[in-house]
Protein backbone atom coordinates (compact mmCIF):
# COMPACT_ATOMS: atom_id res chain seq x y z
CA UNK A 1 0.00 0.00 0.00
CA UNK A 2 1.59 3.28 -1.12
CA UNK A 3 2.12 6.24 1.18
CA UNK A 4 0.99 9.47 -0.52
CA UNK A 5 0.37 13.15 0.10
CA UNK A 6 -3.17 14.24 -0.66
CA UNK A 7 -2.17 16.92 -3.13
CA UNK A 8 -1.67 13.95 -5.49
CA UNK A 9 -5.00 12.32 -4.61
CA UNK A 10 -6.23 12.40 -8.23
CA UNK A 11 -3.57 9.86 -9.19
CA UNK A 12 -4.89 7.40 -6.62
CA UNK A 13 -8.65 7.68 -7.08
CA UNK A 14 -10.46 4.59 -5.69
CA UNK A 15 -7.15 3.11 -4.52
CA UNK A 16 -6.13 2.14 -0.99
CA UNK A 17 -3.33 4.33 0.34
CA UNK A 18 -1.54 5.42 3.51
CA UNK A 19 -1.57 9.09 4.51
CA UNK A 20 0.32 10.71 7.40
CA UNK A 21 -1.44 13.81 8.69
CA UNK A 22 -2.39 16.09 11.59
CA UNK A 23 -5.91 16.73 12.89
CA UNK A 24 -7.11 20.32 12.58
CA UNK A 25 -10.73 19.67 13.64
CA UNK A 26 -13.31 16.89 13.96
CA UNK A 27 -17.02 16.22 14.28
CA UNK A 28 -19.02 13.05 14.64
CA UNK A 29 -22.49 11.61 15.01
CA UNK A 30 -23.51 8.18 16.11
CA UNK A 31 -22.54 6.43 12.91
CA UNK A 32 -20.04 8.64 11.11
CA UNK A 33 -17.03 10.79 12.03
CA UNK A 34 -15.32 13.48 9.98
CA UNK A 35 -11.70 14.42 10.55
CA UNK A 36 -10.35 17.65 9.09
CA UNK A 37 -6.72 16.95 8.33
CA UNK A 38 -3.58 18.47 6.87
CA UNK A 39 -0.58 16.56 5.61
CA UNK A 40 1.74 19.43 4.69
CA UNK A 41 0.66 19.38 1.05
CA UNK A 42 -3.06 20.08 1.43
CA UNK A 43 -6.05 20.28 3.77
CA UNK A 44 -8.55 17.50 3.33
CA UNK A 45 -11.27 15.46 4.99
CA UNK A 46 -11.24 11.87 6.21
CA UNK A 47 -14.48 9.99 6.73
CA UNK A 48 -14.78 7.16 9.27
CA UNK A 49 -17.91 4.97 9.12
CA UNK A 50 -18.74 3.15 12.34
CA UNK A 51 -19.77 -0.04 10.59
CA UNK A 52 -16.52 -0.22 8.57
CA UNK A 53 -13.92 0.01 11.35
CA UNK A 54 -13.30 -1.80 14.60
CA UNK A 55 -15.57 -0.55 17.46
CA UNK A 56 -12.61 0.50 19.63
CA UNK A 57 -11.19 2.49 16.73
CA UNK A 58 -14.39 4.46 16.23
CA UNK A 59 -14.52 5.13 19.99
CA UNK A 60 -10.93 6.40 19.87
CA UNK A 61 -11.94 9.20 17.49
CA UNK A 62 -13.70 10.95 20.39
CA UNK A 63 -10.39 11.35 22.22
CA UNK A 64 -8.17 12.64 19.40
CA UNK A 65 -6.95 16.13 20.27
CA UNK A 66 -6.45 18.97 17.80
CA UNK A 67 -3.04 18.68 16.07
CA UNK A 68 -2.58 15.03 17.02
CA UNK A 69 -0.62 13.23 14.31
CA UNK A 70 -2.06 10.14 12.65
CA UNK A 71 -1.17 7.40 10.21
CA UNK A 72 -4.31 6.61 8.21
CA UNK A 73 -5.16 3.82 5.79
CA UNK A 74 -8.08 4.19 3.45
CA UNK A 75 -9.45 4.70 -0.02
CA UNK A 76 -9.25 7.95 -1.98
CA UNK A 77 -12.71 9.13 -3.05
CA UNK A 78 -13.92 12.01 -5.19
CA UNK A 79 -15.79 14.58 -3.10
CA UNK A 80 -17.58 17.79 -3.94
CA UNK A 81 -17.59 18.63 -0.22
CA UNK A 82 -13.86 19.32 -0.31
CA UNK A 83 -11.99 22.22 -1.89
CA UNK A 84 -9.37 19.64 -2.79
CA UNK A 85 -12.01 17.58 -4.61
CA UNK A 86 -11.05 14.36 -2.82
CA UNK A 87 -11.37 12.80 0.62
CA UNK A 88 -10.17 9.67 2.38
CA UNK A 89 -12.55 6.87 3.44
CA UNK A 90 -10.67 5.45 6.41
CA UNK A 91 -10.35 1.74 7.09
CA UNK A 92 -7.77 1.99 9.88
CA UNK A 93 -5.62 4.56 11.68
CA UNK A 94 -3.12 4.87 14.48
CA UNK A 95 -2.10 7.84 16.59
CA UNK A 96 1.56 8.74 16.16
CA UNK A 97 1.74 11.75 18.50
CA UNK A 98 -0.90 12.93 20.96
CA UNK A 99 -1.75 16.61 21.27
CA UNK A 100 -3.69 18.13 24.17
CA UNK A 101 -4.76 21.71 24.89
CA UNK A 102 -3.46 23.06 21.59
CA UNK A 103 -3.33 26.86 22.13
CA UNK A 104 -4.62 28.00 18.72
CA UNK A 105 -8.23 26.86 18.66
CA UNK A 106 -10.78 27.49 15.88
CA UNK A 107 -11.96 30.65 17.71
CA UNK A 108 -10.63 34.15 16.95
CA UNK A 109 -7.24 35.12 18.42
CA UNK A 110 -5.49 38.49 18.62
CA UNK A 111 -2.52 39.31 16.42
CA UNK A 112 -0.02 39.47 19.31
CA UNK A 113 -1.13 36.06 20.53
CA UNK A 114 -0.78 34.59 17.06
CA UNK A 115 2.63 36.17 16.56
CA UNK A 116 3.81 34.82 19.92
CA UNK A 117 2.74 31.41 18.66
CA UNK A 118 4.06 31.86 15.13
CA UNK A 119 5.73 28.44 15.30
CA UNK A 120 2.22 26.97 15.56
CA UNK A 121 0.28 29.58 13.58
CA UNK A 122 2.16 28.45 10.48
CA UNK A 123 0.00 25.30 10.55
CA UNK A 124 -3.21 27.21 9.76
CA UNK A 125 -4.75 27.05 6.30
CA UNK A 126 -4.28 30.77 5.66
CA UNK A 127 -0.61 30.77 6.61
CA UNK A 128 -0.09 27.56 4.64
CA UNK A 129 -1.58 29.24 1.55
CA UNK A 130 0.64 32.33 1.92
CA UNK A 131 3.77 30.20 2.27
CA UNK A 132 2.80 28.20 -0.82
CA UNK A 133 2.60 31.42 -2.81
CA UNK A 134 5.94 32.52 -1.38
CA UNK A 135 7.45 29.20 -2.42
CA UNK A 136 6.03 29.49 -5.94
CA UNK A 137 7.47 32.99 -6.37
CA UNK A 138 10.89 31.64 -5.39
CA UNK A 139 10.57 28.60 -7.68
CA UNK A 140 9.39 30.72 -10.61
CA UNK A 141 12.23 33.20 -10.03
CA UNK A 142 14.85 30.49 -10.42
CA UNK A 143 13.07 29.20 -13.51
CA UNK A 144 12.81 32.65 -15.12
CA UNK A 145 16.47 33.37 -14.43
CA UNK A 146 17.56 30.01 -15.85
CA UNK A 147 15.42 30.45 -18.97
CA UNK A 148 16.99 33.88 -19.52
CA UNK A 149 20.56 32.67 -18.90
CA UNK A 150 21.22 34.40 -15.59
CA UNK A 151 23.78 32.87 -13.22
CA UNK A 152 23.15 32.93 -9.47
CA UNK A 153 25.93 34.55 -7.46
CA UNK A 154 25.77 34.83 -3.67
CA UNK A 155 26.95 38.15 -2.20
CA UNK A 156 28.23 38.33 1.39
CA UNK A 157 25.85 39.04 4.25
CA UNK A 158 28.58 40.73 6.30
CA UNK A 159 29.93 43.85 4.60
CA UNK A 160 32.21 46.73 5.42
CA UNK A 161 30.14 49.36 3.60
CA UNK A 162 26.60 50.56 2.96
CA UNK A 163 25.38 50.30 -0.66
CA UNK A 164 22.49 52.70 -0.07
CA UNK A 165 24.61 55.17 1.90
CA UNK A 166 22.31 55.03 4.88
CA UNK A 167 23.19 55.05 8.55
CA UNK A 168 20.28 52.72 9.32
CA UNK A 169 22.42 49.59 9.42
CA UNK A 170 22.91 46.77 11.89
CA UNK A 171 26.46 47.17 13.17
CA UNK A 172 28.66 44.35 14.41
CA UNK A 173 32.33 43.71 14.99
CA UNK A 174 34.28 41.67 12.43
CA UNK A 175 37.12 40.76 14.76
CA UNK A 176 38.89 44.16 15.04
CA UNK A 177 36.98 45.85 12.21
CA UNK A 178 33.51 47.35 11.91
CA UNK A 179 31.03 45.42 9.83
CA UNK A 180 27.36 45.61 8.92
CA UNK A 181 24.58 43.23 8.00
CA UNK A 182 23.95 43.60 4.29
CA UNK A 183 21.16 45.90 3.13
CA UNK A 184 21.71 44.93 -0.51
CA UNK A 185 23.95 42.68 -2.58
CA UNK A 186 23.84 45.03 -5.55
CA UNK A 187 27.42 46.32 -5.60
CA UNK A 188 28.72 42.77 -5.52
CA UNK A 189 26.29 41.84 -8.28
CA UNK A 190 27.83 44.56 -10.45
CA UNK A 191 31.22 42.92 -10.01
CA UNK A 192 29.68 39.54 -10.82
CA UNK A 193 27.98 40.92 -13.94
CA UNK A 194 31.37 42.01 -15.25
CA UNK A 195 32.45 38.38 -14.96
CA UNK A 196 29.33 36.50 -16.09
CA UNK A 197 27.18 38.98 -18.05
CA UNK A 198 23.80 38.34 -16.41
CA UNK A 199 23.62 37.41 -12.74
CA UNK A 200 21.16 37.44 -9.86
CA UNK A 201 21.30 37.04 -6.11
CA UNK A 202 18.58 35.91 -3.76
CA UNK A 203 19.02 36.15 -0.03
CA UNK A 204 18.33 37.95 3.25
CA UNK A 205 18.87 41.67 3.68
CA UNK A 206 18.52 43.87 6.76
CA UNK A 207 17.30 47.42 7.30
CA UNK A 208 17.46 49.02 10.74
CA UNK A 209 14.56 51.35 10.01
CA UNK A 210 12.35 52.05 13.01
CA UNK A 211 9.21 51.59 10.96
CA UNK A 212 5.96 49.96 12.05
CA UNK A 213 4.08 50.17 8.76
CA UNK A 214 2.31 47.21 7.19
CA UNK A 215 4.89 47.26 4.35
CA UNK A 216 8.10 46.98 6.38
CA UNK A 217 10.16 44.18 7.87
CA UNK A 218 13.56 44.43 9.55
CA UNK A 219 14.80 41.27 7.82
CA UNK A 220 13.54 40.49 4.34
CA UNK A 221 14.60 38.65 1.20
CA UNK A 222 15.63 40.30 -2.05
CA UNK A 223 16.12 39.08 -5.60
CA UNK A 224 18.71 41.32 -7.28
CA UNK A 225 19.52 40.79 -10.97
CA UNK A 226 22.34 42.71 -12.66
CA UNK A 227 22.96 42.81 -16.42
CA UNK A 228 26.07 43.86 -18.35
CA UNK A 229 25.64 45.61 -21.72
CA UNK A 230 22.06 46.53 -20.73
CA UNK A 231 20.75 50.09 -20.60
CA UNK A 232 17.79 51.43 -18.66
CA UNK A 233 15.03 50.77 -21.22
CA UNK A 234 16.02 47.15 -21.73
CA UNK A 235 16.16 46.65 -17.97
CA UNK A 236 12.56 47.91 -17.65
CA UNK A 237 11.46 45.33 -20.20
CA UNK A 238 13.16 42.55 -18.23
CA UNK A 239 11.51 43.75 -15.03
CA UNK A 240 7.97 43.73 -16.38
CA UNK A 241 8.44 40.37 -18.09
CA UNK A 242 9.73 38.93 -14.83
CA UNK A 243 6.84 40.26 -12.73
CA UNK A 244 4.24 39.11 -15.26
CA UNK A 245 5.95 35.69 -15.25
CA UNK A 246 5.65 35.49 -11.45
CA UNK A 247 1.96 36.40 -11.55
CA UNK A 248 1.26 33.84 -14.27
CA UNK A 249 2.98 31.05 -12.36
CA UNK A 250 1.18 31.88 -9.11
CA UNK A 251 -2.16 31.76 -10.96
CA UNK A 252 -1.31 28.44 -12.60
CA UNK A 253 0.32 26.65 -9.67
CA UNK A 254 -1.39 28.07 -6.55
CA UNK A 255 -5.10 27.68 -7.32
CA UNK A 256 -5.97 26.16 -3.93
CA UNK A 257 -3.92 28.73 -2.05
CA UNK A 258 -5.53 31.63 -3.92
CA UNK A 259 -8.97 30.14 -3.23
CA UNK A 260 -8.18 29.82 0.47
CA UNK A 261 -7.15 33.48 0.55
CA UNK A 262 -10.20 34.50 -1.53
CA UNK A 263 -7.87 36.25 -3.97
CA UNK A 264 -9.51 37.67 -7.09
CA UNK A 265 -7.82 35.71 -9.88
CA UNK A 266 -9.43 37.85 -12.59
CA UNK A 267 -7.69 40.83 -11.01
CA UNK A 268 -4.37 39.00 -11.04
CA UNK A 269 -4.85 38.11 -14.71
CA UNK A 270 -4.71 41.82 -15.58
CA UNK A 271 -1.18 41.97 -14.17
CA UNK A 272 0.09 39.46 -16.72
CA UNK A 273 -0.69 41.82 -19.61
CA UNK A 274 2.30 43.80 -20.93
CA UNK A 275 3.57 46.42 -21.22
CA UNK A 276 3.12 48.09 -17.85
CA UNK A 277 2.31 51.83 -17.91
CA UNK A 278 4.96 54.43 -17.15
CA UNK A 279 4.95 57.92 -15.70
CA UNK A 280 7.92 60.18 -15.02
CA UNK A 281 8.58 61.41 -11.49
CA UNK A 282 8.05 64.98 -12.71
CA UNK A 283 4.67 64.14 -14.25
CA UNK A 284 3.72 62.21 -11.13
CA UNK A 285 4.39 65.30 -8.99
CA UNK A 286 2.13 67.33 -11.28
CA UNK A 287 -0.58 64.67 -11.10
CA UNK A 288 -0.47 64.66 -7.31
CA UNK A 289 -0.57 68.44 -7.00
CA UNK A 290 -3.55 68.63 -9.37
CA UNK A 291 -5.39 66.20 -7.14
CA UNK A 292 -5.05 67.88 -3.78
CA UNK A 293 -1.62 66.69 -2.59
CA UNK A 294 -0.34 70.14 -1.71
CA UNK A 295 2.22 68.77 0.75
CA UNK A 296 4.57 67.44 -1.93
CA UNK A 297 7.09 69.38 -4.01
CA UNK A 298 9.51 68.43 -6.77
CA UNK A 299 12.52 66.87 -5.04
CA UNK A 300 10.50 65.13 -2.31
CA UNK A 301 10.29 61.37 -2.08
CA UNK A 302 6.89 59.71 -2.30
CA UNK A 303 5.11 58.34 0.74
CA UNK A 304 2.58 55.54 0.80
CA UNK A 305 -0.46 57.78 0.10
CA UNK A 306 1.31 59.26 -2.94
CA UNK A 307 2.29 55.86 -4.35
CA UNK A 308 -1.19 54.48 -3.77
CA UNK A 309 -2.86 57.40 -5.55
CA UNK A 310 -0.54 57.10 -8.54
CA UNK A 311 -1.07 53.33 -8.72
CA UNK A 312 -4.84 53.78 -8.55
CA UNK A 313 -4.75 55.64 -11.87
CA UNK A 314 -3.84 52.38 -13.61
CA UNK A 315 -5.09 48.79 -13.68
CA UNK A 316 -1.60 47.29 -13.73
CA UNK A 317 1.71 47.88 -11.95
CA UNK A 318 3.17 51.23 -12.96
CA UNK A 319 6.77 52.38 -13.40
CA UNK A 320 7.64 55.79 -11.95
CA UNK A 321 10.70 56.91 -13.91
CA UNK A 322 13.67 59.19 -13.32
CA UNK A 323 13.63 60.43 -9.73
CA UNK A 324 15.71 63.43 -8.61
CA UNK A 325 19.33 62.47 -8.05
CA UNK A 326 19.23 64.00 -4.56
CA UNK A 327 16.92 61.29 -3.22
CA UNK A 328 18.56 58.32 -4.90
CA UNK A 329 21.83 56.43 -4.19
CA UNK A 330 25.22 57.49 -5.50
CA UNK A 331 25.61 54.72 -8.09
CA UNK A 332 22.73 55.73 -10.41
CA UNK A 333 23.50 57.21 -13.84
CA UNK A 334 22.51 60.80 -14.57
CA UNK A 335 19.62 61.18 -17.00
CA UNK A 336 21.13 62.96 -20.04
CA UNK A 337 17.73 64.45 -20.94
CA UNK A 338 17.30 66.01 -17.50
CA UNK A 339 20.52 66.15 -15.41
CA UNK A 340 18.49 66.89 -12.28
CA UNK A 341 17.33 63.26 -12.40
CA UNK A 342 18.79 59.77 -12.70
CA UNK A 343 17.96 56.83 -14.99
CA UNK A 344 15.96 54.81 -12.52
CA UNK A 345 12.48 53.45 -11.92
CA UNK A 346 10.35 52.16 -9.09
CA UNK A 347 7.63 49.65 -9.95
CA UNK A 348 4.52 50.38 -7.88
CA UNK A 349 2.13 47.50 -7.31
CA UNK A 350 -1.63 48.09 -7.58
CA UNK A 351 -4.13 47.85 -4.72
CA UNK A 352 -2.05 49.90 -2.29
CA UNK A 353 0.97 47.58 -2.00
CA UNK A 354 3.54 50.22 -2.91
CA UNK A 355 7.00 49.81 -4.37
CA UNK A 356 8.02 46.23 -5.12
CA UNK A 357 10.98 46.93 -7.44
CA UNK A 358 13.66 49.58 -7.45
CA UNK A 359 16.15 49.65 -10.31
CA UNK A 360 18.45 51.84 -12.37
CA UNK A 361 21.18 52.07 -14.93
CA UNK A 362 24.49 52.34 -13.11
CA UNK A 363 27.06 55.12 -13.41
CA UNK A 364 30.09 53.91 -15.41
CA UNK A 365 32.34 56.98 -15.46
CA UNK A 366 35.13 56.62 -12.89
CA UNK A 367 35.51 60.32 -12.02
CA UNK A 368 31.77 60.93 -11.76
CA UNK A 369 31.31 57.89 -9.50
CA UNK A 370 34.25 58.85 -7.27
CA UNK A 371 32.82 62.36 -6.95
CA UNK A 372 29.40 60.95 -6.04
CA UNK A 373 30.90 58.71 -3.36
CA UNK A 374 32.59 61.70 -1.73
CA UNK A 375 29.43 63.84 -2.02
CA UNK A 376 27.53 61.16 -0.12
CA UNK A 377 30.09 61.32 2.66
CA UNK A 378 31.45 57.84 1.97
CA UNK A 379 35.04 56.65 2.15
CA UNK A 380 36.79 56.29 -1.21
CA UNK A 381 39.13 53.61 0.11
CA UNK A 382 36.18 51.46 1.19
CA UNK A 383 34.81 51.62 -2.36
CA UNK A 384 38.15 51.20 -4.16
CA UNK A 385 37.15 47.73 -5.39
CA UNK A 386 33.86 49.12 -6.71
CA UNK A 387 35.64 51.91 -8.55
CA UNK A 388 37.97 49.29 -10.09
CA UNK A 389 34.98 48.02 -12.06
CA UNK A 390 35.02 51.34 -13.95
CA UNK A 391 38.76 51.11 -14.67
CA UNK A 392 38.97 47.68 -16.24
CA UNK A 393 36.62 47.26 -19.18
CA UNK A 394 33.52 49.04 -17.93
CA UNK A 395 30.29 48.66 -19.91
CA UNK A 396 26.76 50.03 -19.64
CA UNK A 397 24.94 47.93 -17.06
CA UNK A 398 21.66 47.98 -15.19
CA UNK A 399 19.93 46.08 -12.45
CA UNK A 400 17.10 46.03 -9.98
CA UNK A 401 15.97 44.57 -6.68
CA UNK A 402 12.57 43.09 -5.88
CA UNK A 403 11.40 42.53 -2.33
CA UNK A 404 10.07 39.00 -1.89
CA UNK A 405 7.77 39.69 1.03
CA UNK A 406 6.07 42.70 -0.54
CA UNK A 407 5.52 40.67 -3.68
CA UNK A 408 4.03 37.83 -1.63
CA UNK A 409 1.71 40.27 0.16
CA UNK A 410 0.55 41.75 -3.15
CA UNK A 411 -0.11 38.48 -4.96
CA UNK A 412 -1.71 36.95 -1.84
CA UNK A 413 -3.90 39.99 -1.33
CA UNK A 414 -3.13 40.18 2.39
CA UNK A 415 -3.05 43.37 4.41
CA UNK A 416 0.13 43.08 6.48
CA UNK A 417 3.61 41.99 5.44
CA UNK A 418 4.18 40.18 8.76
CA UNK A 419 2.28 37.16 7.41
CA UNK A 420 4.57 36.78 4.38
CA UNK A 421 7.66 35.58 6.27
CA UNK A 422 7.76 32.27 8.14
CA UNK A 423 9.25 33.97 11.21
CA UNK A 424 9.02 37.74 10.66
CA UNK A 425 11.39 40.19 12.29
CA UNK A 426 9.55 43.39 13.20
CA UNK A 427 10.58 46.49 15.08
CA UNK A 428 9.55 45.06 18.47
CA UNK A 429 9.61 41.35 17.68
CA UNK A 430 12.46 38.85 17.46
CA UNK A 431 10.54 35.91 19.06
CA UNK A 432 10.05 33.14 18.17
Automatic annotation (TrEMBL):
Keywords: Aminoacyl-tRNA synthetase, ATP-binding, Cytoplasm, Ligase, Nucleotide-binding, Protein biosynthesis
Every Aminoacyl-transfer RNA synthetases class-II family profile domain range: 133-432
Protein name: Asparagine--tRNA ligase
Cross-referenced Pfam families: tRNA-synt_2 (PF00152), tRNA_anti-codon (PF01336)
One GO term (biological process): asparaginyl-tRNA aminoacylation
Listed CDD domains: AsnRS_cyto_like_N (cd04323), AsxRS_core (cd00776)
Gene3D superfamilies, alphabetized: Bira Bifunctional Protein, Domain 2, Nucleic acid-binding proteins
Recorded superkingdom: Bacteria
Catalytic activity: tRNA(Asn) + L-asparagine + ATP = L-asparaginyl-tRNA(Asn) + AMP + diphosphate + H(+)
Gene Ontology cellular component annotations, sorted alphabetically: cytoplasm
EC number annotated for this UniProt entry: 6.1.1.22
Quaternary organization: Homodimer.
MF terms in GO: asparagine-tRNA ligase activity; ATP binding; catalytic activity, acting on a protein; nucleic acid binding; transferase activity
Similarity comment: family membership: Belongs to the class-II aminoacyl-tRNA synthetase family.
PANTHER family for the chain: ASPARAGINE--TRNA LIGASE, MITOCHONDRIAL-RELATED, ASPARTYL/LYSYL-TRNA SYNTHETASE
PROSITE patterns xrefs: AA_TRNA_LIGASE_II
Places the protein is found: Cytoplasm
Amino acid sequence: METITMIHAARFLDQEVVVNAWVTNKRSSGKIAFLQLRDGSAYFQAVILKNQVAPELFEQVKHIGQESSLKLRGTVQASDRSALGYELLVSDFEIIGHSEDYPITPKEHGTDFLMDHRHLWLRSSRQHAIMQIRNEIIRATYQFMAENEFIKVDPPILTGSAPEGTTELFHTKYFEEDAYLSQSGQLYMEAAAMAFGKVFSFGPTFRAEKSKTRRHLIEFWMMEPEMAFVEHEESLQVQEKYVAYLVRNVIEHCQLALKTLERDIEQLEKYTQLPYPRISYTDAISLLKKNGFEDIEWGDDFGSPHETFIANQYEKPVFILNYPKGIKPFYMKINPEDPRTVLCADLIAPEGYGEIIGGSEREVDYETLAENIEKFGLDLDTYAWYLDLRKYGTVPHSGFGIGLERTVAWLSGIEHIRETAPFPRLLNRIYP
